[in-house]
Amino acid sequence: MAASGSCLAHGPSLSGSDVALFGSDMHLGDHDPATATLFFQRLEAAWPQASHVFLLGDLFEAWVGDDQPDAVAADAQALFARIGASGRRFYVMRGNRDFLLDAGGGEPAEPRFAQRCGATMLDDPCLVGLFGQPAVLAHGDALCTDDIDYQRIRAEIRAPDWRSAFLARPMPERLAFARSARAQSERVKAARYPSDVNAGAVDALLRKAGARLLIHGHTHRPACHRWLLDGQAARRWVLPDWDAIDGRGGFLWADAGGFETDGWLSASGA
Fold this sequence. Notes:
Elements: E1 9-14, E2 20-23, H1 33-46, E3 52-56, H2 71-85, E4 89-93, H3 113-117, E5 120-122, E6 126-130, E7 133-137, H4 148-157, H5 160-167, H6 171-191, H7 199-209, E8 213-216, E9 223-229, E10 232-238, E11 252-255, E12 258-261
Parallel strand pairs: 1-6, 2-3, 3-4, 4-5, 7-8, 8-10
Antiparallel strand pairs: 2-11, 6-7, 9-10, 11-12
């Protein structure tokens, strides 16, 4: 179960015959229909086998408000709504690209993202219980503390005043901002690979949570890292990003027997 006394927000505790499915970094949008199709097909095949589905951020390449107009967003929400209506527990965490998920936008009376999808929004980070073991779930970008410029921008655009002002802008202006931000992101990626997490920040988060297990995405460096933290075995799962052309993507499964990937990491790597 989740560690008592932790100051992190708490999510669900899984036990017994529960099965968890984790994914992140799909970067869905009309700009890449092939990757959207790949993800939708894989998720459709996977979710009926899970009791709990966790999507840990950057579901969308950009999210300018819950009135997001693109077709891929509509298809994604229709699929998510089927999962939510099935009786599965469906959890979504915001990422750096879609930090405005469930923040509103459009007519105030319109249902927000979580209501439309039957989802529960998770704080980033949060603490869950995985079969008797406390585990921290995070998107991962807040742990990339060596990228000082990014952390400054992250703090600015997540401030409530910035968010309210942005969502009040007309849709064409919001979409133009998203296009500009995406172009800037592509220039940064061309100059340097997305930054990795800081080991000290990871250790500090796990100590704060009273946990020795972390699951996150964001860095596009899928792996399972193991080390000793204060004399105890620690493990960090990094989820893969999705790209149909390069054949990337996949889920992490967890049940009472342990963890398993769907092929993106070999047994020796796990």
